[in-house]
Amino acid sequence: MINKNTISSELIANAAREFGTPLYLYDEFLILESCKNVLGMPNAFGLTVRYAMKANPNKTIMKIIADQGLHIDASSLNEVRRVSMAGISLNKIMLTTQEVPSNKDMEDLQDMIKKGLRYNICSLRQLELIADFISKNKVNLSIRIHPGVGSGESSTRDTGSPYSCFGVHLKDIEEVLDLAKSKGIIFEQVHSHIGSGGNPMKWQENIDRMLGFIEKYFPQAKSVSFGGGLKVARMPDEVSADIQALGRYARQKLEEFYKKTGRKLHMEVEPGTYIVANAGYLITKVIDKKQTDKCSFIVTNGGMEVNTRPLLYGSQHPFYIISKSGKLIVENKKELAIVGRCCESGDSQTLNDRGEIIPRLIPDPEVGDLVIIGGCGAYCSSMSPFNYNSYTQAPEVLLDTQGNLKLIKKAQTLNQMVTNEL
Ligand SMILES: *Cc1c(COP(=O)(O)O)cnc(C)c1O
Q1: Does residue 207 carry a pLDDT above 60?
Q2: Which end of the chain, N or C, is less packed with Cβ atoms under 10 Å?
Q3: DSSP states along 286-352
Q4: Quick one: average pLDDT of 371-381?
Q5: Ligand 1 atom closest to 274 (CA)
């Protein structure tokens, strides 16, 4: 058994036989569990949980999550369009984007705002461009603040540091507030997102910082969003963020804020990783074995084009080896490097954060056995350079709560890959 709940090695071998490899396999039960955990986060005056859809925007996955009562955090206009196409209503969606919409995009954005989309402005320029519309239509805005301090699992995922440009920086805030005031615009919500998978202590400290900003600058705000970034342990030596402890801290601070100011702030959080990361497995097959005088390699049919996180961040994922007949192999461990099929020495699942291959002690598989990569539910299918070396995009399968394997995304075909070329 790969996890104690539903996914067994036999089931994985069956999925590989039925749908081919490489294959993403998601466990609905685990998605529901993590939704429940976050919805149960302690809070003082109400909680909205937004799923950051960029982690995994498959419509079946988004619908399962939205059915649990989560709202959606979208990172681009296309993400708003995409989740709307999945049937999720605009008044459950907030747009937090680096994009600066113009022309048709601006028309669409305004239309979506009229229909209930919440717009979280992230720069002075974004506010300048939408100010007249907001003022005329009397809708309220959310504002993303650059808190000046961030925390992420790597510097590439720290969105609060001075070398990161997300949100309205404090040095712009007076100008933003002046413009808003002159147009009668109200910031109903104040938002920050300091990074992904960072130190939970930093996440907690940011609560104090945000409440300080709200007290000082935003007398009309009714809601505060502390963003996403809740850490998930993919590896046995990692520790997940303690949702209960973070919630208790937030509750205490929000109650203190109420005593001090008379204002009851609604709370929002925006997890992506936390909801789906450990609910997804990548099933790959061993196609070759090679050796140099320094290193033994296991070559699989799914590498950086299906999980780029090791190459991007030096991320560590757990591996499970399953025999052709569906047996979990735990013996005969060796120091092995797992590599993919792309012409790229960094196409490996066993890299450190400098892009160097660091072999790992794992059971030695045979050609034809399966290598399962855990922790692949978030930022794998959604963030991979999937057509590199002209490999087609892998299909996605859901294990539903009844124990059925359901294809939720077909494999891309070679024709689809070239269809737009003239
Ligand atoms: C990416 C992102 C999130 C989710 O981050 P996770 O680390 O996946 O939880 C939340 N909010 C915003 C604004 C984001 O850009």
Answers
A1: yes
A2: C
A3: EEEEEE-SS-EEEEES-STTT--HHHHH-----EEEE-TTSPEE-SSEEEEEEE-SSS-TT-BSSB-
A4: 98
A5: 9
